[in-house]
Amino acid sequence: MKTYRLIVASLVTLLAACCLPAADSKPIARVMTLLDVDTEDATGYAVWLKEYNEIAKAKTGTENLLRVFQTVFDGQNSGHVRVSVSASSVAELMKLTNSLEGDPAIVQNREHLRAIRKTGARVLYQALRFDGPSAKGANNYSALVVVADEEAYLKALDELRGIFDGIGLKDVKMAAYRVIAGRNDHSHRVVISTASSDRLAAFLDAMATNSRLADWLARSAKLRTLVSTSTTREITKY
Question: Which of 9-13, 30-34, 206-210 has the lowest mean pLDDT?
Fold first, then answer.
């Protein structure tokens, strides 16, 4: 499979928040891939992906197929770049991939990308909870976890949503994903998405100091093992 096909069919981000019915383990119509990218020119990379998105829109009608995020607080490699792609199903994701694979403009775009980046890990996720798409220029907090009891953990996320709503964080969005393929150190990804760095800071302050959130963290600890956390900012060129 060609490298750029893997970018589209692979895939932080990353995420969402509104009111949903009580969670269970039934998947919803959303999959996401995250592709890790090694580049010394994140801005230039995002510019080339803007061109890719324009080609993809003209051919498929899909808006902003690829979204680019760069880590800020990252325990392994701050400034790391990830590319996300979302669709309603894996079948739809692959259909998009196949329709773009041989396009001459995509092939040319791919050659430019090869000169400024190397691709790394990629993980395919199934959404279990999704409160809505993140805003343009989103600032996100992501937690990678190993979940012991998925249904109970999703119910705990329902409770967390209610806490957010009660402490001035109604605007933050939350999503939870289960790994379909590419699993290494985690079974699920939970993403909290905010519209700005200021709102992300408000969320982080609340997580560090709010007593209701501290109690939730203590009670939910038995349901999951935390692997890592990071924050990202979107650098997609629209």
Answer: 9-13
Residue 107, domain extent: 3-232
The number of beta carbons lying within 10 Å of the beta carbon of residue 158 is 16
Has residue 237 been placed in a domain? no
Using an 8 Å Cβ cutoff, are 13 and 134 in contact? yes
Counted domains in the chain: 1
β partners of residue 147: 224
Does this model's pTM top 0.85? My answer is: yes
Question: Is 238 contained in some domain?
Answer: no
* Tens digits of residue pLDDT in 207-233: 999 999 999 999 999 999 999 999 999
Q: What is the DSSP string of 132-191?
A: -PPPTT-EEEEEEEEES-HHHHHHHHHHHHHHHHHTT-TT-EEEEEEEEE--SS-SEEEE
In a domain, 7, yes or no: yes
On the question of pLDDT at 200 being above 50, the answer is yes
Which CATH number covers residue 50?
A: 3.30.70.100
Residue written as token pair 């809505």? 132
Q: How far is CA 187 from CA 58, 152, 173, 184, 224, in A?
A: 36, 15, 21, 8, 10
Place of tokens 């739809």: 92
Residue 81 identity: V
Backbone φ and ψ for 6, nearest 5 degrees, come out as: -65, -30
pLDDT tens figures, 112-122:
999 999 999 99
Cα separation values, 23 from 28, 55, 81, 172, 178, Å: 11, 37, 31, 18, 14
Residue 16 reports pLDDT greater than 70: no
